[in-house]
Protein: Hydroxysteroid 11-beta-dehydrogenase 1-like protein
Amino acid sequence: MKFPVKIFLFGSLSAALIAFQWYDPYFSGESLKGVRVLVTGASTGIGEQVAYHYARLGAQIVITARRAHALNKVSLKCQDLGAQKILYIPADMASPAEANRVVEDAEEQLEGLDYIVLNHIGPSPYRMWDGDVDHMRWLMQVNFHSYVQMTQKALPALEKSMGSIVVVSSLIGKLCSPYALPYIATKFAVNGFFGSLQHELAMKQSNVSVSVCILGFIDTDSSMEKTKGYIDMRPYPAREAAWQVVKAGALRQSEVFYPWYTYYCTLIRDWFPYFRDLVIRNSYNYIP
Structure:
């Protein structure tokens, strides 16, 4: 009887784990009406879609990215969608001074801050690493150090509002893969820092939440262009990925995964290393 009992217990635990992962918690959109939000990297892709979701829910929004003309287009659409307030700040996150300025300006314009959504990334070629250390240093400033700076700058305002830090990260910040070494290094840094920050804020009994959003292959224009010919996978919609990001912050979830397979990839990452590496290598085409 021992063997069937073990199978039953294993099956029950597996079913419970799957059910827990597929459980989709509900939140009322009304809870985000009038909230003060800063969204970075909002001129295109996931950040743009995040801004549109907040606009539909009647939030007060500041968006930022490098290109002023693109931000202007996004802000006009946010206005049409119902944002209570929409402002944009062109800024280059390669500059530490710019990262600080954006948070200061957003807090001043919105008279406080309830959410900061860190989403921006710097451009990086999709190819085998060519040994360019300078590019990796630059990308680390844009994709990681600026996140840390903006978090440090925003924390006092978020403490006052019982606010949330929402971090857009990637599956390849948890799972090593080829062709994007500088980008992957920055995402591993992001996951490590903000995962650890969650613990420190909890230990200090801070009322600020940190949500880390682990995203897979998403159909943004940038992603599709860079990975064309490299990846044999179906991309998932940026609009839905952005909605998961908004929900994560509203529900104060510590970690969310989208699409479905990202959770299971991280779950079995260290269980079956041979098959893990086999799947990774078979998901890409070798291009020297």
Remarks:
- The radius of gyration is 20 Å.
- The domain at 29-122+132-282 is CATH 3.40.50.720 (Rossmann fold).
- The first strand starts at residue 36 and ends at 40.
- The chain has a mean pLDDT of 91.
